[in-house]
Amino acid sequence: MFVVTAADPGTGERAGCLVGFATQTSIDPFRFLVCLSRRNRTYRTATAATVLAVHVLGRDEGQRELAALFGARTGDDVDKFARCSWRPGPEGVPLLSAARRHLVGRVLERVDPGDHVGFLLDPIEVAGDGGAAPLTFRTLPDLQPGHQAG
């Protein structure tokens, strides 16, 4: 499971959501694809963003709290970034302090594979440690999504 964050360079609006559809798509050049539901605010912000940050969550309690914040709350109702520690990354994209691993990628292309939109990223910053085992769908706490995914 990943948390994707975005910032609209024109308005400064920030958004972020829990994401389950993401994958490396190429070795050389290295490319990463992350898919966002059209129904959520992060998608709307990401349409104007030039970069996205993809945070890899671990299984420890603090990471589960981030998953709950970004997966069970909607930015339409709450400022998620007022409820967690973060810092601005490249081009203002929010980087979550508690997520020890992240990839920031320049948006190369947006593709329409179905009810989500895929954002093809060219990594410009990769950071983190080997750390804890990643949080997966099976190890994710039971969450009610802020928006329906499909």
TrEMBL record:
Keywords: Oxidoreductase. Residues 1-144 form the Flavin reductase like domain. It comes from Actinomadura violacea. This is Flavin reductase. InterPro entries: Flavin_Rdtase-like_dom, NADH-dep_flavin_reductase, Split_barrel_FMN-bd. The keyword Oxidoreductase applies. It holds the Pfam family Flavin_Reduct. It comes from the Bacteria.
